[in-house]
Design a protein that fits this description.
Layout: E1 7-9, E2 13-14, E3 21-24, E4 33-35, E5 39-46, E6 52-59, E7 69-70
Parallel strand pairs: 2-7
Antiparallel strand pairs: 1-4, 3-5, 5-6
């Protein structure tokens, strides 16, 4: 069998007003995604008053980074 090379991108966002909503370039709207390839993945983060921040995350399967990304 082929090895499973997928890995989870789960950024931690702090800040904003109220609950946050997410939109990945892949179309997913969850706060994390599972990807099969390393590379850049963009996410838009919306707060409850309409503030939008866009981030590009460079995904490398090298471990985890638990640092918050302020919005």
């Amino acid at each position: 069998p082929q090895p499973d090379n997928r890995f989870l991108i789960h950024p931690y966002f702090s800040g904003g007003i109220g609950s946050l909503q997410f939109k990945w370039e892949t179309g997913e709207t969850t706060n994390s995604i599972t990807v099969a390839q390393e590379g850049s993945y963009s996410i838009e983060v919306y707060d409850s008053i309409g503030c939008i921040k866009k981030f590009t995350i460079l995904a490398k399967n090298t471990g985890s980074n638990d640092s918050p990304i302020p919005i």
